[in-house]
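Long-time lurker. I teach an intro course on protein structure, and each term I like to show students one example going from raw sequence to a predicted 3D structure in token notation. This year I'd like something fresh instead of my usual example. Would anyone be willing to generate the tokens for the chain below so I can use it in lecture? Attribution to the forum is fine with me.
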Amino acid sequence: MNNRIDAIYARQSVDKKDSISIESQIEFCKYELKGGNCKEYTDKGYSGKNTDRPKFQELVRDIKRGLIAKVVVYKLDRISRSILDFANMMELFQQYNVEFVSSTEKFDTSTPMGRAMLNICIVFAQLERETIQKRVTDAYYSRSQRGFKMGGKAPYGFHTEPIKMDGINTKKLVVNPDEAANIRLMFEMYAQPTTSYGDITRYFAEQGILFNGKELIRPTLAQMLRNPVYVQADLDVYEFFKSQGTIIVNDAADFTGMNGCYLYQGRDVKPSKKNDLKDQMLVLAPHEGIVPSDIWLTCRKKLMNNMKIQSARKATHTWLAGKIKCGNCGYALMSINNPVGKQYLRCTKRLDNKSCAGCGKIITSELETVVYQQMVKKLASYKTLTGRKKAAKANPKIAALQVELLHVDSEIEKLVDSLTGANNVLLSYVNVKIAELDGRKQELVKQIAELTVEAISPEQVSQISGYLDTWDNVSFDDKRRVVDLMITNVAATSDSLNITWKI
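-- Reply from a regular --
Happy to contribute to a lecture. Here you go:
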């Protein structure tokens, strides 16, 4: 152990005038070491809220390899601003007999009082981090309410120019005439009852029109059609968002049909924000809108109706739905009826904008027949003597993880029992250990679940075999379940078939 070296760790989250630089931190630490060789570990641009930092993790690995004798930092919070993470690091230092030194805070970690002072300091470091986080959130919320451009790339149809609002330098969206014409055409097309996403993406692809340097695809199109940044917001727009439960910052009188809007999630983030406008926050922006309100509202209501229909949609055309991909581009294949009622598979990328040559002529029923035959062959191979033994044998990884899970549960139970009549110091220690063990427990549960999903039991093999033997009489949903157990995906063209198996 005599050949162990000293280490300096330095961290800086962001470059600010009032923040100490990486270089300065290292100089302070070198002074503390008073010369001698050392290895430097530096993380720039990383927060102290967790330990997921590349050089910090390298330092941890070197400690566990027995290479480090002493770790020197400029300040305690350079290690972490999390109480739990800091406690874990202190335990690691003790385990591997590593001395820990803060060049600006002098504590003797070999004494109970020294360790208590360390913990008090890290508590205040975490409090500072959480206070800063709340200040940033409050500032964001306050500025968004006043119509500030809150960063990010300018949406297609605009570019940004610097302006001053309320004495603060910010940016304003300015209409790009050429791009704005494409935006208006997009909305006018979708406002027609019979126009689909595919019609619009194909049109722009055929015209060679790119959006931010890329071909227009359906998800991007849907996102643009939902965005109120483009609308010329008038009272109709105000009433629409009000009817949806949206928080509207500006008065109704401000909606004059000139300005676009910003839509923010607000403080209470909820799922399905694409569809649910309730509790989102609408603010009039300083820029001019592009799309007349009547056209924008027609598109928005059409989108909302389409989402209601799609949410209830279920695979009905083929039991291979969700598994079949284009053998050329990897996009999903969609089953489509032709005029005579026969179902064909079509590449969704081809349908979008013709940027893929497509999968050729594939009749859905014919592909199903071929895949079914391959499933029968695969299961027959799997059910050989070797295969039976493999299937019947319990996964040793699952068994090992289950044993560890029982051990962790037992340790948590013991620690909970020890809380009765415990003093404050013991309570603090036990709570930290329980939190640590609970984190490991969640990891184990997740790993076991993943391995269990991947594994096929002998009972499942028998069930699959029974289904394949009577395939014509098996229900559509059961066919889909069998496919999900056996197949990861099917890459197909009219000339090729490649099945990725789970067994």
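Some talking points for your students: The domain at 5-133 is CATH 3.40.50.1390 (Rossmann fold). The chain has four domains: 5-133, 158-311, 324-386+460-501, 396-454.
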